[in-house]
Design goal:
With about 200 residues, the chain is an alpha/beta fold. About 40% of the residues lie in helices and about 10% in strands. It has a single domain, classed as Response regulator (Rossmann fold), CATH 3.40.50.2300.
Length: about 200
């Protein structure tokens, strides 16, 4: 018979990656309720020419999000805030994306230092701290948005699945897929030029 604490741990591992992930998700939602995420929720989609998905390593979350967006006919790329340009997607990311019809086998990471910003780019971050890092590096707040704002269910913090369970990889990628699809609907409604005709 499983104990209450083991059930809680399994719930956290499946839905949030870890207990720490659950806490970060909760803190992200609190920041949202308090209005601290407001600068990153309402980008000018009608002026967006390219979606740039941003995470830490560009081998899991942003790589997958880029593949989803590209499959929706969106002009897109992805970058990592602290990675090595040329690294392949993580093996669990490749395996999790495949049943969803997405191939990450040819993906290679791009570090922020190798990315060339365009004023019409929309930088879509997975975590609030990523937005703060981009701001500290000089990127304008108007060019940054929290991807989780479009997720179903709404989740401001999209916790990194790297080295976590297969179950959480599936949860994370499901959230990312719903977020990208929700964003693409808004882009289409706004007449964004990043949607390929």
């Amino acid at each position: 018979m499983r104990t209450f604490s083991s059930r809680i741990r399994q719930l956290a591992d499946t839905n949030y990656g870890t207990l720490r992930g659950a806490v970060r998700v909760l803190l992200g939602q609190v920041e949202y309720v308090l209005g601290r995420t407001e600068p990153y929720l309402h980008p000018r989609l009608q002026d967006t020419h390219r979606l740039v998905f941003v995470c830490l390593g560009n081998i899991n979350r942003s790589a997958f999000s880029e593949a989803v967006a590209r499959g929706q006919g969106v002009h897109t790329c992805s970058i990592g805030l602290s990675t090595t340009t040329g690294h392949p997607a993580f093996h669990k990311a490749i395996a999790t994306a495949q049943p969803l019809g997405l191939d990450l086998a040819s993906h290679t990471a791009t570090d922020l230092s190798d990315y060339r910003f365009r004023p019409t780019d929309l930088l879509l971050v997975m975590e609030i701290r990523h937005a703060h890092q981009l701001r500290a590096a000089g990127y304008p707040a108007a060019s940054i948005a929290l991807l989780g704002h479009w997720a179903a269910p709404h989740r401001i913090h999209l916790h990194d699945p790297h080295e976590l369970s297969d179950a959480y990889f599936r949860t994370c990628f499901s959230l990312l897929q719903s977020a990208v699809q929700g964003l693409v609907l808004d882009l289409r409604a706004a007449g964004s030029p990043c949607i390929r005709q």
